[in-house]
Amino acid sequence: MKRWLLAGALLALKAAGVHAADAHDHAHGSAAMPLHATQTPWGIAADPSRAERMVEVRMRDSMRFAPSVINVRRGETVRLVLVNEGKLEHEFVLGTEAEIRRHEAMMAKATGAHAHTPHAESAPSGMATVAPGASEMLVWTFNRPGTFTFACLVPGHYPAGMRGQLVVR
Fold first, then answer.
1. CA dist 62 → 22, 76, 83 (Å)
2. What's the order of all strands across the beta sheet hosting 44-45?
3. pTM assigned to the model
4. How far apart are the first and last CA of the chain?
5. How far apart are CA 150 and CA 158, in angstroms?
6. Cα(48)–Cα(114) distance, rounded to whole angstroms?
7. What distance in Å separates the CA atoms of residue 129 and residue 136, rounded to the nearest whole number?
8. How far apart are CA 65 and CA 58, in angstroms?
9. Rounded to whole angstroms, how far apart are CA atoms 93 and 15?
10. Given the DSSP bridges, would you call strands 76-84 and 69-72 parallel, antiparallel or unpaired?
11. Per-residue model confidence as pLDDT tens for the chain (169 residues)
């Protein structure tokens, strides 16, 4: 238990520093609650101190998430610890299936040095880019019921099967 608490605290500190200097404007993936958190169809970003439990999501170069299904209770605040076990950059983008498909199409069109540019304008709230061998954290209060999608939208990863479901009951 102490190991998880220490790991969570270290991730929170790391995430705060990484996102403050992140050139890709991934404020949606920040560990701290945004100044103006936006309600989404599945929930709202939350303060890490409010997390009721932690779910570790492993990202693999086999283009899979583990687990691929996450179940939460309506109203539950969850700390999602995103661990990239691979040698490729991966993303965790949470949204409705329609939002994910729309954003994936925009990402597929972007190439080269500006491949992440569409994130600033079109990414659903609830995303983080995770470097190879690194970890990031998202904390959400899931206050709306439904089945939502999480996916890696690095070009080619989503069509290869890097997606999962988050079920809020």
1. 26, 30, 14
2. 44-45, 135-142, 76-84, 53-60, 64-66
3. 0.74
4. 27
5. 10
6. 31
7. 8
8. 6
9. 16
10. unpaired
11. 433 433 443 343 333 333 323 333 333 344 444 556 899 999 999 999 999 999 999 999 999 999 999 999 999 999 999 999 999 999 999 999 999 999 888 887 776 544 554 444 445 568 999 999 999 999 999 999 999 999 999 999 999 999 999 999 9
Which residue is associated with the tokens 């439904």? 146
List 67's β-bridge partners, or say none: none
Question: For the chain, what is the largest distance between any 2 Cα atoms, rounded to a whole number of angstroms?
Answer: 45
Exposure of 2 by Cβ count < 10 A (0-12 exposed, 13-18 middle, 19+ buried)? exposed
C-alpha dihedral sign at 11, 13, 19, 22: negative
Determine the Cα–Cα distance for residues 119 and 27; give it in Å rounded to an integer: 10
Per domain, the residue ranges of the chain are 2-168
For domain 2-168, give its CATH number from 3.30.1390.20, 2.40.50.140, 3.40.50.1220, 2.60.40.420.
2.60.40.420
